[in-house]
Amino acid sequence: MTTARHQALAEHLADLSRTLLRAHWHSAMPGGQPFDDKADASPVTELDRRIELELRETLVRETPAFGVVGEEFPAHEADAEYVWVLDPIDGTKAFIAGLPVFGTLIALCRDGRPILGVVDLPISGLRWVGVEGEATRLNGHPVTTRPCAELAQALLASSNPESPPDHHLDALARLRRATRWRLYGGACSAYANLACGRLDLVVDSGGMTPVDYCALVPVIEGAGGVISDWHGAPLGLHSGDTVVAAGDPALHRRTLELLHRA
Question: What stretch or stretches form a coiled coil here (predicted)?
Answer without folding.
Answer: none
